[in-house]
TrEMBL record:
Residues 82-175 form the THUMP domain. GO terms for molecular function: RNA binding. SUPFAM superfamilies: THUMP domain-like. This is THUMP domain-containing protein. One of its GO terms (biological process) is tRNA modification.
């Protein structure tokens, strides 16, 4: 998954203008991570931004980053609850399949990735009276996979899980945001095309620099 020295870019995506945007830095509880957000009213397409970065790195017009290993282009955030997660995934999957740039076969092959960074710490801090709640249940990887897969199939009935070569990948990232109540968990969600993910050793966003060239990667 995402390793040390990562950048998270979090916005809701609907526009792809050339405007300059102000970004805010969100305080996190873990080292080696940065979470950057754009104003809600100015939301560039984070998938396109990361795709362009990879293209620039590949062409040599952009120097290889030294301290940033991966950039996770978050498209939306939501509270880690079943209905909220289902609604968020369904909306983003619908946008993905309706985008004419995404050429999909039938059945549509998809995969789900869930990064629970800080899971142990969060689980231990959740009050005992909420241990059996929706929040606690969704911390379970298999439960989250089941909910996300159901949301995908609700939008694309002709779809099947393919862990080796998914055409679309749903990545859910538990965000260790500082200052939130221990029982309030927030996740970032993105629907990524095949070119932006790697499936080995497990599903995750591609590293900006392959091999050992990334500092502390």
């Amino acid at each position: 998954g995402l390793q040390k020295n990562e950048c998270h870019s979090s916005v809701k995506t609907d526009t792809n203008t050339e405007t300059d945007f102000d970004m805010s830095l969100v305080k996190l509880t873990r080292n080696g991570l940065l979470l950057l957000t754009f104003p809600r009213e100015h939301s560039p397409n984070t998938i396109n931004i990361v795709s362009n970065i990879f293209q620039s790195l590949g062409s040599g017009s952009l120097k290889s980053p030294v301290w940033c290993h991966r950039i996770f282009p978050i498209q939306a955030t939501c509270v880690l609850k079943e209905k909220e997660l289902q609604a968020t995934v369904s909306k983003l999957v619908l946008q993905f399949v309706n985008d004419e740039q995404n050429k999909l076969s039938r059945p549509v092959k998809f995969a789900v990735g869930y990064n629970r960074r800080g899971f142990e710490e969060k689980q231990n801090k959740i009050p005992k009276d909420t241990k059996d709640s929706d929040v606690s249940a969704l911390l379970d990887r298999n439960k989250c996979f089941t909910i996300v897969a159901a949301a995908v199939k609700e939008v694309v009935s002709d779809s099947a899980v393919d862990l080796k070569s998914p055409e679309l990948s749903v990545l859910v990232e538990l965000l260790p945001i500082s200052g939130l109540p221990s029982e309030l968990l927030v996740v970032g969600v993105s629907i990524l095309p095949q070119k932006l993910v790697t499936t080995k050793p497990r599903l995750s966003i591609r590293a900006l620099v392959s091999g050992t060239n990334a500092k502390n990667g």
